[in-house]
Description:
By secondary structure, the protein is of the alpha+beta class. The chain has helices at residues 16-28, 46-61, 73-79, 102-109; strands at residues 34-38, 65-69, 82-87, 90-96.
Amino acid sequence: DIRPPYPDRKVLYLSGGNQQKVVLAKWLALKPKILILDEPTRGIDVGAKAEIYRIMSQLAKEGVGVIMISSELPEVLQMSDRIAVMSFGKLAGIIDAKDASQEKVMKLAAGLNL
C-alpha cells in the first residue's frame, strides 16, 4: 500500500512510513520463516503504524515468527504474544502477554524480581 505522488521517485525521498513499508516489502519477498523488526514504527505517522501492525499480525497468523524490538512500551504490550525484557544487557525475564503490564515490564527492566 505504497502510493507515492511520483512512482519513479527514489525510496530515499519517500515519507518515513513509505520507506519502512518498502524495506518490509523487500524482506517479505524472500518469504522468511522468522522476521526480526528493530523499531519498525519509529518516526512514522499513525496510519503507517497501523499498516505495519496489520502486516505483522497477518504474518504471525500465517506462521511467520515475528520478533519485534521496540522501546515503545505501549506498542510492545499491544503487539506481543510474549515479551522478553532485557536489563543491564541480560535477559531479565519473559512475560506472557496475557499476564503483562507496564509495571511488570518496568520492574524487570529495572532489575527487580517479580
